[in-house]
TrEMBL record, chains A, B:
<dbReference type="InterPro" id="IPR018334">
    <property type="entry name" value="ArsR_HTH"/>
</dbReference>
<dbReference type="InterPro" id="IPR036388">
    <property type="entry name" value="WH-like_DNA-bd_sf"/>
</dbReference>
<dbReference type="InterPro" id="IPR051081">
    <property type="entry name" value="HTH_MetalResp_TranReg"/>
</dbReference>
<dbReference type="InterPro" id="IPR011991">
    <property type="entry name" value="ArsR-like_HTH"/>
</dbReference>
<keyword id="KW-0238">DNA-binding</keyword>
<dbReference type="Pfam" id="PF01022">
    <property type="entry name" value="HTH_5"/>
</dbReference>
<dbReference type="InterPro" id="IPR036390">
    <property type="entry name" value="WH_DNA-bd_sf"/>
</dbReference>
<keyword id="KW-0805">Transcription regulation</keyword>
<protein>
    <submittedName>
        <fullName>DNA-binding transcriptional ArsR family regulator</fullName>
    </submittedName>
</protein>
<dbReference type="InterPro" id="IPR001845">
    <property type="entry name" value="HTH_ArsR_DNA-bd_dom"/>
</dbReference>
<dbReference type="GO" id="GO:0003677">
    <property type="term" value="F:DNA binding"/>
</dbReference>
<keyword id="KW-0804">Transcription</keyword>
<feature type="domain" description="HTH arsR-type">
    <location>
        <begin position="26"/>
        <end position="123"/>
    </location>
</feature>
Length: 128, 128
């Protein structure tokens, strides 16, 4: 099958299709799908939400613990969270009153891999 | 000095200020600066330009070799290249008629590092 596989959350299984962003010219379709993920990261509120979710001890966080960190309405926060979810970066589950969010680490692993130069030591290995 | 250092091309020396996007909640200022870089990547044409520049043998590419790959005008391509340059991802130099572009690999290394989970093996090491 030559078509790209798009996951249930709309993200592409990038490592199935691409040798990496820096190793060879990206195809048009891959670029469109990957740009959607980077666009989701291209907003300060979404970056902060993602880092709060990703760094939460226990691996998940209630939306009720996210909202107070921002001077924004609950619907605005929910809209940003939806964009992160549609980009395949996080997932969520409703439990009673609240929605709980967690990172989909395979998505950030994939981006890290795509941004890693082929055959080079990775930053984590070379930093003092 | 507690202020963020912003490089000559407008990008933040992220690894001087942040433990990583996934390890701890990002500060507001860091999020603003980092979002600018991800926003630059959040466009399919810019992603394709970046991958063409990054994967070019010899490490640099003439704008005259970039433009024919796109069904876009030279000014549009130049605008996208300017956005990548302002995000600190590439740099360029005019030589005679043409402008030559190259990747600033420390910028992509930094993003890869920020997207790498603390204490986890990296994708390049675990893939078959």
């Amino acid at each position: 099958m030559s078509k790209q596989e798009v996951g249930p959350l709309g993200h592409v299984a990038v490592d199935d299709c691409c040798p990496g962003l820096l190793a060879a010219p990206l195809g048009e379709e891959q670029a469109v799908e990957l740009a959607r993920v980077f666009k989701a990261l291209g907003d300060p509120v979404r970056l902060r939400l993602l880092s709060m979710i990703a760094s939460r001890e226990g691996g998940e966080i209630c939306v009720c613990d996210l909202t107070p960190a921002f001077d924004l309405s609950q619907p605005t926060i929910s809209h940003h969270l939806k964009q992160l979810r549609q980009a395949g970066l996080i997932d969520c589950e409703r439990r009673g009153t609240w929605v709980y969010y967690w990172l989909l680490p395979e998505a950030t692993d994939r981006l890290a891999g795509l941004l890693t130069r082929p055959g080079r030591p990775l930053p984590a290995e070379t930093s003092a």
